[in-house]
Design goal:
The protein is of the alpha/beta class and 416 residues long. The protein is 37% helix and 13% strand. InterPro entries: CoA-transferase_III_domain (IPR050483), CoA-Trfase_fam_III (IPR003673), CoA-Trfase_III_dom3_sf (IPR044855), CoA-Trfase_III_dom_1_sf (IPR023606).
Length: 416
Amino acid sequence: MTLQSDHREVRPGTAGHDPAEDRTAHQDGFSRNATGPLAGIVVADFSRVLAGPYCTMLLADMGATVIKVEGPGGDETRAWKPPVRDGESTYYMSINRNKRAIALDFADPQDLATARRLAGEADVLVENFKPGGLARFGLDYESVAADNPAVVYASITGFGTEGGASLPGYDLLVQAMSGLMSLTGSPETPAFRSGVAVFDVITGLHAAIGVLAALQERGRSGRGQLVEVNLMTSALSGMVNQTAGYLLSGKVPTRMGNEHPSIYPYEPLPTRDGEIVLAIGNDRQFRTLCGVLEAPALADDPRFATAPDRSHHRTELRPLLQELLSARSAAEWFDILTEARIPCAPINDVRGGVELADRLGLEPVVSVGEGGTELPGIRNPIGFSATPASYDLVPPGLDADRDAVLAWLDARPEHA
């Protein structure tokens, strides 16, 4: 890391700086042995729970040195149990690898001074406090940028900083208010939430994209900026065809169970033993399916010949497909249909999903940590041919790196 305490000088990622120097410099027991494209970038992570920590973990996987700042009680997810591994929350562990950790009490003047020093040395700061919550500590964007104008400051909120500033930013609430729950489940069931905090994850991804874009701009201009994302806007963006369908047609979508509003068949269908998912996206695929099912005449039936026809006449087509699929088991159909290049899938549990990815050669599980402390983790989804992700640090314990963080801050040029 080659951060400069005098922010009038060139900083990592700005014009005139050679990022390759950061990958070999400062082997001080604090800098990471990272190979990713963000090696040398320092991220002050003032976020907690999911969206922010997921964003900063992705950055850390890509080589950034991430310093996780927690209150004295720690990130709430440390207490979100079960499930656990060796007594520790697997929820917390899932989004906090490759980070250093320090606990700071902003009510303590010395700890607050440390937080401000860290913000002043960071290339990137990520926070998800309530809107305006950091201003009284001098850790809001305007205060931090006054000392560190090159900082990329990412702020994550639930509903923005205007009319929704006072609303609590929980993924479940956003799933309800955005309309997603109205789309999840069948017409006969109540609204359901997604099985994953999907909008926290999408917002974390949006935050990471914003940070990377702002770092690119800083590389041209030398200037940092404020990057703002919120769960509600990410939700409306992430619902893509459903929100666009409402805006462009005026029709409000409703729950359809596992069906798709625009194409058919695109759902699980029963076989002789279990269900198989079909995802027929065009007329060619449907004609091939009918041939494999030994019912080629279905493809010429005017009710089913085109995608709009099939969608309109799905209640007539469904029982015909169910009867044909009842001849074999789901496993048999999966092999037969896959061989014919017809999009289909078994319905796996999570273990089955991980095992399938492994059989496909995707190597979904990586070893996190070094020196006998390794833990399994899910691979970063982005592959780099020249600067691969690294997984050298297990999720840190609360305040585990206080001495190392303080020593690093004291070694910065203005404290040397």
